[in-house]
Amino acid sequence: LAEAEAMYQRALAGKEKALGPEHTSTLSTVHNLGNLYKDQGKLAEAEAMYQRALAGWEKALGPEHTSTLSTVNNLGSLYRDQGKLAEAEAMYQRALAGREKALGPEHTSTLGTVNNLGSLYKDQGKLAEAEAMFQRALTGQPQR
Q1: pTM score, two decimals?
Q2: What is the pLDDT of residues 14-44, one digit of tens each?
Q3: Which of 5, 25, 68, 132 is the most exposed place for a label (fewest CB within 10 A)?
């Protein structure tokens, strides 16, 4: 992972110089560096990268673009790992609403966020809500 980090850092520096810090290609690298930091357990660094990517995506593509929503979902997962459960829930809810609108309720990315929300609800002791989310993730259909 250290080699991957060095490569991402090099790519990021090159993209920032060639394309600028707010170019969508640069933002993709920022997001991916956030993923790597999260995998390495460098949660503060991951949060900084995700926040930077999120601000950039929102400015460049808008708050409901799928790239923006991917970062929102990943930020929710990071907050969950950090024990910031209320912040995680807000991010997952935002990602879910946006993905339902942009991709539809049965899309695999939407259902991934549904599953994440179910896991968060389980962590919070909201077992009925967790069960509903897990059932939806399994069936692809909201419970009625």
Answers
A1: 0.92
A2: 999 999 999 999 999 999 999 999 999 999 9
A3: 25
